[in-house]
Structures are given as structure tokens and as C-alpha cells.
Design brief:
The structure holds 2 protein chains of 2 kinds.
Chain A: E1 3-5, E2 10-15, E3 18-23, H1 25-31, E4 34-38, E5 45-46, E6 51-57, E7 61-65, E8 70-75, H2 77-81, H3 85-88, E9 97-101, H4 113-122
Antiparallel strand pairs in A: 1-2, 2-3, 3-9, 4-6, 5-8, 6-7, 8-9
Chain B: H1 11-16, E1 20-24, E2 27-32, H2 36-46, E3 48-52, E4 57-63, H3 73-81, E5 97-103, E6 109-116, E7 126-131, H4 136-146, E8 151-155, E9 159-165, H5 169-176, E10 188-193, E11 196-201, E12 210-216, H6 217-228, E13 233-235, H7 238-247, H8 274-279, H9 285-294, E14 298-305, E15 316-319, E16 324-334, E17 339-347, E18 356-361, E19 364-371
Helix pairs in contact in B: 2-7
The chains are: A alpha+beta, B alpha+beta.
């Protein structure tokens, strides 16, 4: 299973014909205890780089940008109800949204796991 | 982290405890430890937290008008400082602490501070001051120049400051310094701990019972380690310090109180002593006392947002019919309350508890209610 990462610490994972998007484990650790998550409704469309979601810790609010263009097919209401899940399993159960990509070639420019690990260690 | 930042005597200890360090008021300070802001906050409310607040400014102010220790020496130093603050300092008992504010000529708040009258016989004519880190250079320069010829200020550069806060604090400190737990809220005592002179004040910035301990720099790490060796005590960073004080409804200078706010609209009129409300004699007294009589045009209030979304500093406050009525000055998530909390300034006709307002967060109105502070009950030890 291929996972790609952005410089804004979002991950994109192919799952069937959609892409699962969330914030990286590293980003969740940097954020600290997540207390609030706001996700877009299914059916909304985004261009790569648009403000897509919000994640807030006790300390601060952070925007989550759409890592790829496309239409939201599902938002993970479990993390809206229990934001702390983001700290527990950021790259697993605590995914943010599933997107139907309009231009899968956008993934080509993203980092793979090894490149991201190096990037995260330096940031 | 930049080498140009100042370090407290506990800097190496913070690093060894795995703290995440940030810049604060020119110092490299711990914002959180591996426990995390949420855990540190809850630990402090349940047990006890140890905070390094050595970046704050400590100083002794002594009268030069009369021999210290002699009759009238306290009145002399109190009268001098009362020209800069609205607090009742003259009637402060030996060993008593007062929370008050430094004011500018317009009655705006330059800083908030603690003024202590030392308890010992012979110390009459001295006051112990603790001011905010970001303001200490300005505060001390102001006090020195305004009181020139009446008092001398000695900055306690060789003292660190630790805060031990939480319901277990008294038990912890009693094992270290027998008798320290007997002193009541807003009093100070001096102790000698293993040869080190400590100034122990029962006060804090969390809403919990607790102590602030002024300790010589070269003994600070040793004292911190002894306190941390107690199972009840965990190190707490600036992140939880902020969420704890916010839940307790306590002001953060530079945010909730500024030169543009007075003690009246800042909703801290209690910093003005009863005698001083009649006699004035502090900077901006005419304006402040007029404002007190007429009622302020705006007021600092507590705000409880509905739902889970925090409203942070700068968020606009609107009436339910869409008019701008103020702004949030502090806001975040209250871990003990399990909900977002905020404070801010609103027009006086929207300041009543229970008033419905909207906080504008990311362009959208977030319903909130004007609420009494503190948001969580205070647990001070009053004897």
C-alpha cells in the first residue's frame, strides 16, 4: 500500500478508487493533545492547497490543506466526536476524509515514506 | 534554540526531563514535557505541578527616607509605592501579599504584580515585588525613576522562582519545610532550607492551592529535584500554565490587561484598596474613579462557547443581531472543564452573565454565553 506525504504533514493513501487523507503521526505529535476537529461535508470539492479541515490542540489551531484536488466522498465523524483519537492513531483509524481524486498525477510530486521521515526529522 | 536566549537556572533540568523548549519573553522556557499539555493540566488539578517561573522579575524595594526597621518605615515605603499602584499597601500586614497593578497617567495598566510586606521584625521599610517577565525591565526602570530619592530598588538577580501548585502541594512542601503548610493564602514566610534562604508565598496562577518559592539560583535545581522526587509532583510547562490560569479566570498581561485597559473595564476593581477609592493618589485616579462611578463602557467577561470549537485571542465578539461588541483576549480549551473557554471585552450592555453572543471563528458565528469566572472552582487555603 502506497502512502505519500506533503510538506504540510498530510498523508494520502490509496484505498480502492479513493484516497484516504489525514495528518501524519509526526504532525499529531507536534500538535499535542487534539481537542477539536472540523471536517468538510461529503460532496464538497477542493483544489489542491485549499483549506479543507481544521485541527486544534489545547495550544493552537492548525489548518489542514487539501493535498490533492477532488471530491469528498466521506468524512470521519469518529474523530469529530473524539478528537483525541488523532493522537492515538493518526495514520490509521483517525483518518480525516476520503477523496475521489480529479488528478491523481498530483501525487507524483509528493514524498514517499522514506523521504517524509527524513523531512519530518529535520522540521 | 538560539544562543541569544536567556536561560533560567533550571534550563539543564528542563532538557533532561525531555521538555519541548520555546522562546518566551526572551528566555528559553519549557512549553511542555512528555506528559503533554492536557496531562500536565489535569495532573496539576489532581495532584501537584512544579513550574519554573524564574523568568519573572523579583526585586526588593527599600525606603531611603527613614531608617529601615524603624517606626514609620513601612508607612514610608508603602506611601512611595502607592503613588504608582492603586492597592492598599500601607495596611498590608507583616507577611501579607497584595495583587495589584502598575498604572500609567491615564489609568492604563502597565503590568500586574505581587507586592509583599516581609514578615520579619526589622524588615519594615522593605517590600518584595514579583512582576511579569516580559515587563520586568520597564517596570523596574519606572519604579526606580519615579521613586528616586524615596526608595532604592534591588533586583534579585540571584534568585530563581518555582511554583508548586495543586491540592497535594501543601503536603509536599510540609515534608520539605515543616510548618510551611500552615500559612494561609496570600501570605509569605521566610525559611532556611539546608542553608538556603527561601521566600515562600502561598499564591499562584492556577486557581489551586499552592506556593511560589523564591530560592537562590545556585540551589534552585537541587530544590526542584527534591520536589520532583515526590510521587505527587510532575514538571509542568507554559502550555498548561496558560490553560490552568484561563480556567481560573486569571488575566494574562499583554492580552487580557494592557495599557488600553483600566482596573475597572479589566474587571479587577478589587486591586483598588478601599481607602484608595476615596483618597485616590495613584496614576489615572481621576479617570479610574470616574469610570468606577459611571460604570465602564466595556468590561472583561468570561465566555463559554457552545460545542467543542475553541475561540482564540482576536476572535470578534458579535451580538446575536450581528453587531461588533468586542473581541476575545484569551481563549482555548479547558481540560478540566472538558470544553472551550475564553475571556474578552464586550460593550457594557452585553456584559451580563447569561447574555448570548457570537464569536466569529474562521468567518462563522460560534454561539457563546457570557459566563461568571472562574470557570472551575478555586481551591485556595484560607486557614
Amino acid at each position: 500500500m502506497t502512502v505519500k506525504y506533503t510538506k504540510d504533514h498530510e498523508y494520502v493513501r490509496a484505498e480502492g478508487d479513493v484516497y484516504v487523507i489525514g495528518v501524519s503521526k509526526h504532525a499529531a505529535e507536534q500538535l499535542g493533545d487534539v481537542v477539536f476537529v472540523e471536517l468538510p461535508d461529503a460532496g464538497k470539492t477542493f483544489k489542491k492547497g485549499d483549506d479543507m479541515a481544521v485541527v486544534e490542540s489545547v495550544k493552537a489551531a492548525s489548518d489542514v490543506y487539501a493535498p490533492i484536488s477532488g471530491e469528498i466522498v466521506e468524512a470521519n465523524s469518529a474523530i469529530v466526536d473524539e478528537p483525541a483519537k488523532v493522537n492515538e492513531d493518526a495514520e490509521g483509524a483517525a483518518w480525516f476524509v476520503k477523496i475521489r481524486a480529479s488528478d491523481p498525477a498530483e501525487l507524483d510530486a509528493m514524498m514517499d515514506e522514506a523521504a517524509y521521515a527524513e523531512f519530518a526529522a529535520e522540521s | 534554540m538560539s544562543d541569544t536566549l536567556k536561560k533560567t537556572p533550571l534550563n539543564a533540568l528542563h532538557h533532561s526531563l525531555g521538555a519541548k523548549m520555546v522562546e518566551f519573553a526572551g528566555y528559553e522556557m519549557p512549553v511542555q514535557y512528555p506528559m503533554g499539555v492536557m496531562g500536565e493540566h489535569l495532573h496539576t488539578r489532581e495532584k501537584a505541578g512544579l513550574f519554573d517561573v524564574s523568568h519573572m522579575g523579583q526585586a526588593f524595594l527599600q525606603t531611603t527616607q527613614i531608617t529601615p526597621g524603624s517606626d514609620g518605615a513601612h508607612e514610608a515605603i508603602a506611601s512611595a509605592i502607592e503613588t504608582l499602584v492603586p492597592g492598599e499597601i500601607r495596611k498590608l500586614k507583616k507577611g501579607g501579599l497584595r495583587y495589584t497593578v502598575l498604572l500609567n497617567k491615564e489609568g492604563g495598566i502597565l503590568d500586574d504584580l505581587m507586592i509583599t510586606r516581609p514578615p520579619k521584625d526589622g524588615s519594615e521599610g522593605s517590600l518584595f515585588l514579583v512582576v511579569n517577565a516580559a515587563k520586568k525591565a520597564e517596570d523596574f526602570a519606572l519604579i526606580e525613576s519615579e521613586l528616586a530619592g524615596r526608595a532604592v530598588l534591588e533586583v534579585a538577580k540571584k534568585r530563581a522562582l518555582l511554583a508548586l501548585q495543586g491540592p497535594a502541594a501543601a503536603g509536599v512542601i510540609d515534608r520539605l519545610i515543616p510548618g510551611a503548610s500552615e500559612q494561609t493564602f496570600m501570605t509569605m514566610r521566610s525559611f532556611v532550607w539546608q542553608g538556603a534562604s527561601l521566600i515562600v508565598s502561598r499564591c499562584g496562577y492556577t486557581g489551586e492551592d499552592g506556593f511560589e518559592i523564591s530560592v537562590p539560583n545556585d540551589r534552585a535545581e537541587e530544590l526542584a529535584k527534591v520536589l520532583l522526587a515526590d510521587d505527587a509532583v510532575a514538571p509542568i510547562g507554559l502550555g498548561a500554565r496558560d490553560s490552568l490560569r484561563l480556567e481560573a479566570g486569571l488575566c494574562l498581561y499583554g492580552h487580557d490587561l494592557t495599557p488600553e485597559t483600566t482596573p475597572i473595564d479589566g474587571n479587577i476593581a478589587f486591586v483598588i484598596g478601599k481607602r484608595r477609592r476615596e483618597g485616590g493618589g495613584f496614576p489615572g485616579a481621576t479617570r479610574i474613579l470616574q469610570q468606577r462611578a459611571d460604570g465602564p463602557a466595556r468590561l472583561r467577561v468570561g465566555l463559554l462557547p457552545e460545542g467543542r470549537a475553541p475561540a482564540r485571542e482576536g476572535a470578534e465578539i458579535q451580538s446575536t443581531d450581528g453587531k461588533t461588541i468586542g473581541a476575545v483576549t484569551s481563549g482555548g480549551f479547558g481540560p478540566t472543564l472538558g470544553a472551550p473557554v475564553a475571556m474578552g471585552y464586550v460593550d457594557a450592555d452585553h456584559a451580563e452573565t447569561g447574555t448570548s453572543v457570537n464569536l466569529i471563528v474562521r468567518g462563522k458565528p460560534l454561539p457563546a454565553t457570557v459566563a461568571d469566572m472562574p470557570f472551575v472552582p478555586q481551591n485556595y487555603y484560607r486557614g
